[in-house]
Amino acid sequence: MTKSAVVLFNLGGPDSEDAIRPFLFNFFMDKNIIGAPQAIRWMLAKYISEKRGRGAARENYGYLNYCSPLLENTRAQAKELQAVLGDGFRVFPCMRYWHPMADEVAQQVKTYAPDNIVLLPLYPQYSTATTKSSFEEWDRAAQAAGLSVPTEKIGCYPVDDGFIQASADHVRSVYEALTVETVKKPRILFSAHGLPESVIKKGDPYQGQCEQTAAAIVARLAQPGLDWSLCYQSRVGPKKWIGPSTEEALRRAGQDKVPVLIYPLAFTQEHVETLVEIEIEYRALAETLGVPGFARAPTVGTHPAFIAGLAELVRGEKKSTPACPESCVKCGCRL
After folding, report:
1. Element (DSSP H or E) covering residue 103
2. Beta bridge partners of 231
3. What are residue 9's DSSP bridge partners?
4. Strands lying side by side in the sheet with 260-263
């Protein structure tokens, strides 16, 4: 029987208060995040991680007892995916900016001695800041470990049927509950992590794929006249970011006196951006703005349809998707 290693990529998060600053330093040292020369990038990463590690980031992770649930949630997804794939596959969670990182996981995969490797990011939409960064780091670590095995890269799956079905299921149940609670039809805000406009102008397909995901979920919901929009959260730094921002979308909802349901369509598990930024910060902002009802739909997590869709991608049972934009070919996506 052939053996396949599935490397399940995610960003990672600090596992203690002391880990917040080094986690942030690793993040901002990524050349796909800050494109400055290495020496300048090191100084910027040091400054930002020290400032945010004492300020906003420390405060946000404080709500989570200074431990991101992202690794735990990724391991839960890996366990479910392993169960669906069965014999002949082993799933290895791999974090980009905190443990277990690529060097450690590459050694684990080498010990497993697979016949082939499948790289599977838990980012449905491709971006240079996520998928490309994870692939590049894995290529470096695999070479350093002497891991020379045929490797396939799954670059994106923005409209994968399992992902869309799981998303629609979660949105629908919360939408119906909020409608009953407020006696009004809510507005769905599909909130994705933002990017600087300059990144998109260089050809990054992320924004276009987020638009495809949102449209596919709306089509699956099949609600005539559904009120919805796409917005972007988590802006940092002085650059102009893609919009509208989630804050702007909430202000419009307050002006229109319409309840809001936020669904984080670019995240596949709960972590600080969903549990703190959306659930705590945006909920408080919505109340301040007079939004007459607020709810957050959970991420796809271990929804059976999502896990089944990932398994089909790993097995190579899906070969093409009409929503994958032409610019996505450079991500190495086999779809």
Report:
1. helix 102-112
2. 191
3. 94, 121
4. 228-233, 187-193, 260-263, 294-296
